[in-house]
Amino acid sequence: MVVATDLTKRYGDLVAVDAINLRVEAGDIYGLLGPNGAGKTTFMRMLFGLIRPDAGSIEIAGVRVQPVPVHALGGVAGFVETPRFYPYLSGRKNLELLAKLDGNGRGNGGATRIDEVLGVVELMDRAGSKVGEYSYGMVQRLGVAAALMREPRLLVLDEPTNGLDPAGIRDMRTLIQRLAGSGLTVLLSSHHMDEVEEMCTRVAIMRRGQVAFDGSMSELRGRAGRATRHLVTTDDATALTICQTTTGVVEAAREGSRIVFDADDQTVERLSRELVGLGLGIRVLHAPTSALETLFFRLTDSKADGEGVAA
């Protein structure tokens, strides 16, 4: 559905997207994951033809986006950053206007389609309210409704849960999974590992304009293994020495009043028994991040410049 080949975008000395290669297959829920500034939004702007790449190419369903984006975007819909609407018009009126501008708002068919998409995003009961009265989550859902008006094959969403409260995040995730289940290909960006893990079938992790990982969620889970642990004992000096000599414990070090290290669950069990067996009391031992989040931080850490990039 989407193929990017050596895609590059520069802004002066800044390389926002650095010769990346990505492939999104039809039916994927494909997540672009990375911290702010990783290049995710720049990639999406090139996908929509809003900016031109400096090198490389991007294709949608075999058609190059450049030099004439409209030729490639017939089956594509979505939004980059936050969807915008006329706040003094109702949700329905906004969709009617967009349908006319897009050429599919004539006759009863357009009205039927508006009812359908409002139902999909669960906004029928607020369709007559002004958008200025909507919550942020409702505006996001109206943005998805506007995209669905085009009956796209590819739905592109830039951080669709950004700024939502927990209930709004839950509703948006459920909506995206339901849309993907209907046969849509979904490409979304996020900086939350748990969000990508819950929704996506494939993921690309971006770091400073490059791809640090590209593969299925099962492949990513297979690479994870270790989670970051925090440890506080009755004798941290001795505990640190034990951690540093225990097989499977990685990068053990003092960090303030605690010991920080990476390890899988089996290693933590062995380490715990050894500490207690030597008479040390364990006051704190927990994992503030999951194994996937630990891998994400390791892949995107700006201090890890010496590490290779695995695409």
Molecular shape: elongated
As laid out across the biggest beta sheet, the strand order is 6-7-8-3-9-10
Rg on CA atoms, Å: 23 Å
Number of strands: 14
Number of helices: 10
The percent of residues in helical segments reads: 25-40%
Strand content: 25-35%
Main beta sheet: strand number and arrangement?
Answer: 6 strands, mixed
Average of pLDDT: 87
CATH topology of the largest domain: Rossmann fold
- Order of helical and strand elements: EEEHEEEHHHEHEHEEHEHEEHEH
List key phrases describing it.
311 residues, alpha/beta, Rossmann fold, Alpha-Beta Plaits, 2 domains, 6-stranded mixed sheet, 4-stranded antiparallel sheet, 10 helices, disordered C terminus
Structure in words:
The chain is α/β, with parallel strands linked by helices. The protein has 2 domains: 221 residues, 3-Layer(aba) Sandwich (Rossmann fold), CATH 3.40.50; 76 residues, 2-Layer Sandwich (Alpha-Beta Plaits), CATH 3.30.70. It is 35% helix and 28% strand. The protein has 10 helices and 14 strands. It has a 6-stranded mixed sheet, sandwiched between helices. The chain has a 4-stranded antiparallel sheet with strand order 2-1-4-5, covered by helices on one side. Helix 5 links the parallel strand 7 and strand 8. Helix 2 crosses helix 3, helix 3 packs across helix 4 and helix 7 crosses helix 10. The longest helix is centred in the middle third of the chain and has 16 residues.
